[in-house]
Structure prediction request, 280 residues.
Amino acid sequence: MQTNTPPRSSIRLTRRGRIVLIATGAVVAATAVAVPLLTLGGEQDAKPTSLVIPEGWRAGQVYEAVDKALELPPGATKKSLAKANLRLPNDAEGNPEGYLFPATYPIQEKATPESLLAYMVDTANKKFNGAPIAAGAQRNAMNVYQAVTIASIVQAEAATKADMGKVARVIFNRLERGMPLQMDSTINYALGRSTLRTTLDDTRLDSPYNSYQRMGLPPTPITNPGEDALRAAISPTPGDWLYFVTVKPGDTRFTADYAEHQRNVAEFNAQQKKSPQPAQ
Prediction:
């Protein structure tokens, strides 16, 4: 860490976690009769014909959705990973997080958890390993898996599509300066939650995903990012920002000045007191 870096315990880089789409429980595909995440064909009691995976979902959410789509006992899809034979990069060490590409997937009559997960991973490989993602990763002196990891953080942290490039730039700037990322979303991932509130105790969590304590990128992606986040990860917006905070919806402030960031965080805290959000 550079000597001019403020103490870790006093920094709140983002003060926000991504409230994932599952919180709304309302994804509808096509024009067929629909329930959250699933598109049904014809009659109300018919089996779903497609499965929608939103941008930013974690692998655990995808597993649950596949269980529901295929009418399997909870946990069945996760257990199927051992025999799924997914085409993942070596860096993933068998963990498909980041490679369950967000899209709408058809559910064939004989679909299995393994076939659906393989479809998602194959789709991700087509997106990630061709131009421009692979070339963009190489241009930024990283491999594709690292680019996907950065994109997953961008997906979790950016309040809007317009902010994604700036969030990516903060990540690069902090990595280049030898600063810890200090992203609340990585702690949320370790704790299996989504919240705007990160406490001092949270930042002391003993986890490889604690980016307040650990240097560099987390060991795996923390979400399954979409194409906008991936583009941001390989082509971050030019800027010198090191900090950002979403003070209120539609008002995310980026700065390279720590004192200014502290003022922004104070305003964020004041906003939270006016309209407190329950931790999730």
Notes: The chain has a mean pLDDT of 86. The first helix runs from residue 59 to 69. Residues 59 and 97 are 5 Å apart (CA to CA). DSSP finds ten helices and six strands in the chain.
